[in-house]
Specification:
Largest sheet: 6 strands, mixed
Number of strands: 17
Shape: globular
Strand order of the largest sheet: 6-17-9-5-8-7
Low-confidence stretches: 1-12, 248-263
Protein name: PglZ domain-containing protein
CATH topology of one domain: Alkaline Phosphatase, subunit A
Number of helices: 27
Distance between the termini: 32 Å
Radius of gyration: 26 Å
CATH architecture of one domain: 3-Layer(aba) Sandwich
Helix content: 40-55%
Structural class: alpha/beta
Strand content: 5-15%
CATH class of one domain: Alpha Beta
Length: 696
């Protein structure tokens, strides 16, 4: 990968966090109350650092849930003089006045308050407040280095654009400049707040060179930007072919945007017809875009000639060696970009997307994986598993408390949906939302489903994100958390079943002010008739639907043909009418659709079955769960590579023993597709908004 598209390095030891961390010395006060309106303590690195110093952090949101956690895990132990970690209670409401906390807390705890205004005194608070907290490191370094005076809103926006997002609007003078900026932005998946997008577009429109560019769409909408490139890639290939092949007539790019038959190109996204893909600042991205599946290769009448040039990666050809070349490039790209142990979660999201592409390609015989490639993938898989496990042990706990916009874990999703319903910018007075949970759908299987859906309905658009499932990656833990909108610690009585999901889903929306007849929950979907779904959605007051599609989970639990078999059967199912019909039904009824999964799955090899009899509360193929730590320890002695997982966000007596990497608690040497453990495939799942494409 080019250095131009490598994420910025980790922050220096002295950072904005230093202003806060100096207040936290272990064993000084067992209870600390913090007014934190800007959610600084729950930023990923801050959270990890505080935990490593011996502090636990709990948000004060729901008083009943807080009281349960506080009394059971902390005060009862303090009263009995038992050893317990120091506790930080965080109030992150807009007012964040600590006086609203319960009296007993105010009496017992020391009180602190932090906000962005104290850390960035010379910058406009409203501009800084909407930034992703992960962007504050770069901003803090820029503030130290450049020491700006007091800046107003627009000056702060310009400062942030330049130093955080590496966008200097005055240097964007021609199409290649703008394309480079947008490629860097969208390839990294950076999220620019709406106010900064508006400022950037305002400055761009001062340049007549961009008069016919749909800037509002291309700057703010990642999927639309890549669709914009995809539509213009064949036009560019025509121009390259005309140059490379003597005697060919010039076509589209040379004749004002018409095909050889004289018909105009049917572009769904308006704007310039020709793009300078061959500019050196743009070419640096091209391989990665096609290798990682962000752009798709296309057929061309002169594919043989084009495949011998630098554009060959984006040309569909018959020879298997071209596919093998793309596969080889993807392996090299992934090997060079495995996130570090202290990486932010967004780096793993980016990596997981490419990893899913590799899973699909390497399991498909048509991709021509060579015998030499198999050991390379095996070695890469081991590196990825080791790095991801180390990262998870250190950083996973910090994800739970992150803000839900954008969602990072599955239990954030309902809050994210609720925020979108209540947004003042929403176009509909009573927006309707559907959360479709395809039980067991891994990221690589989503790519298979997406391809099947797109082939049936080219008019669909997929806005792809990713979220983390819960550990252990089990349906009763992770799917239940998805519908409850809360961590499993708050539903201990139902953690071994999914029977309470309808009640938890209804309760979440009741807390948002919706009535029972406005909320729909249905499960057991995936094949057969859709009459029940149609009837439920037809209720005039239905506004929120939670739908469980369990077909993929059924496929994986009967799968004996490994990853390749999963892809084949999931593809066959997705090509059948059911899923398309379900999506059309929702879209026709005016629902915004969000599709996700409760966990993924992985192909694993048996390492033997624990002989603990009935003592295990759950006997999964990738995980065993116990209520007794001593019993779990005895089983681990027989499986020394298994991992005792601390109950992060789980009830204290929910003690999981996770199978080793790519192993399962089944008969030795037996291969199976299963879930419950820790791997990229099991833990990072898709979150996709599905909509019908409209012309831009």
């Amino acid at each position: 990968m080019s250095s131009d598209i490598t994420p910025s390095s980790s922050p220096a030891a002295e950072s904005w966090r230093s202003h806060i961390l100096r207040e936290f010395t272990p064993k000084v006060a067992r209870l600390t109350l913090v007014a934190d309106p800007d959610e600084l303590l729950t930023e990923e690195t801050m959270f990890v650092t505080l935990r490593e110093r011996g502090f636990d952090l709990i948000r004060f949101e729901d008083p009943i849930e807080f009281r349960y956690a506080y009394e059971s895990r902390y005060r009862s132990k303090w009263d009995r003089f038992l050893d317990s970690r120091d506790l930080v209670v965080i109030l992150s409401t807009q007012s964040s006045s600590l006086i609203t906390l319960p009296y007993d807390l105010l009496q017992a705890g020391r009180k602190l308050s932090f906000n962005l205004g104290d850390i960035f005194p010379n910058l406009s608070y409203p501009v800084v407040a909407v930034l992703d907290r992960g962007d504050l490191d770069v901003l803090y370094e820029a503030q130290k280095k450049h020491a700006p005076g007091q800046l107003g809103d627009n000056a702060t926006k310009d400062f942030v654009l330049r130093h955080v997002f590496e966008i200097a609007p005055e240097l964007v003078k021609q199409p290649s400049d703008l394309l480079r900026v947008l490629l860097r932005l969208h390839y990294r998946g950076q999220r620019i707040p709406a106010g900064l997008v508006k400022r950037f577009i305002q400055l761009l429109r001062q340049n007549n060179a961009f008069g016919d560019w749909p800037l509002d769409t291309l700057v703010a909408d990642r999927e639309a930007f890549f669709a914009f490139l995809q539509e213009r890639w064949p036009i560019f290939l025509d121009r390259v072919a005309a140059k490379e092949t003597s005697g060919l007539p010039l076509n589209a790019s040379a004749q004002g945007g018409v095909c050889e038959d004289g018909m105009p190109y049917g572009l769904s996204i308006k704007g310039p017809i020709e793009l300078p893909f061959d500019h050196h600042d743009i070419r640096v991205y091209i391989d990665n875009l096609f290798v990682e599946g962000l752009l798709h290769c296309v057929p061309h009448d002169h594919a043989d000639a084009l495949s011998k040039t630098w554009v060959g990666i984006g040309v569909r050809t018959a020879p298997i060696q071209d596919r093998s070349r793309r596969l080889s490039k993807l392996i090299d790209s992934l090997e060079a970009s495995i996130p570090a142990e202290d990486a932010k979660h967004t780096e793993w999201f980016h990596f997981a997307r490419g990893w899913a592409e590799l899973k699909v390609m390497s399991s498909d015989e048509d991709w021509g994986l060579s015998e030499a490639g198999l050991p390379k993938i095996k070695e890469l898989t081991q590196k990825v598993d080791e790095r991801f496990m180390a990262w998870t042990q250190r950083r996973y706990a910090g994800l739970i408390q992150l803000p839900p916009n954008p969602p990072v874990m599955l239990h954030h999703v309902p809050r994210f949906l609720a925020n979108s319903i209540s947004s003042p910018h929403h176009s509909s007075p009573e927006p309707k939302l559907a959360l479709v949970v395809i039980d067991g759908l891994a990221m690589d299987q989503w790519l298979v489903v997406r391809e099947a859906l797109a082939s049936k309905q080219p008019g669909l658009r997929f806005r792809e994100q990713a979220v983390f499932a819960w550990i252990p990656s089990l349906t009763s833990v992770s799917r239940q958390a998805t519908f409850a909108g809360k961590a499993p610690i708050f539903f201990p009585n139902s953690i071994h079943t999914t029977d309470k999901e309808p009640a938890l889903w209804a309760q979440f929306w009741a807390d948002q002010g919706l009535t029972a007849n406005e909320v729909v929950y249905l499960k057991g979907l995936g094949d057969g008739s859709l009459e029940v779904v149609s009837e439920a959605l037809s209720h005039p007051k239905a506004r929120v639907a939670g739908l469980v599609v369990d077909k993929v989970d059924k496929i994986l639990h009967g799968m004996q043909m490994g990853t390749a078999g999963m892809h084949n059967q999931v593809s066959q199912w997705a090509k059948q009418p059911y899923l398309n019909t379900l999506l059309n039904l929702l879209l026709d009824r005016g629902f915004r659709i969000f599709l996700t999964s409760d966990h993924g799955n992985v192909e694993a090899e048996g390492c033997g079955r624990p002989s603990e009899g009935a003592a295990a509360d759950l006997r999964g193929e990738r995980v065993r769960v116990y209520t007794d730590a001593a019993l779990r320890g005895e089983v681990k002695q027989k499986f020394p590579d298994a991992m005792e997982w601390n109950p992060v966000g789980l009830p204290e007596d929910y003690l999981a023993l996770l199978a080793p990497a790519r192993k399962a608690f089944v008969q030795e040497m037996q291969r199976t597709v299963c879930h419950g453990g820790i791997s990229v495939e099991e833990l990072i799942v898709p979150l996709v908004e599905i909509e019908r494409r409209t012309e831009c």
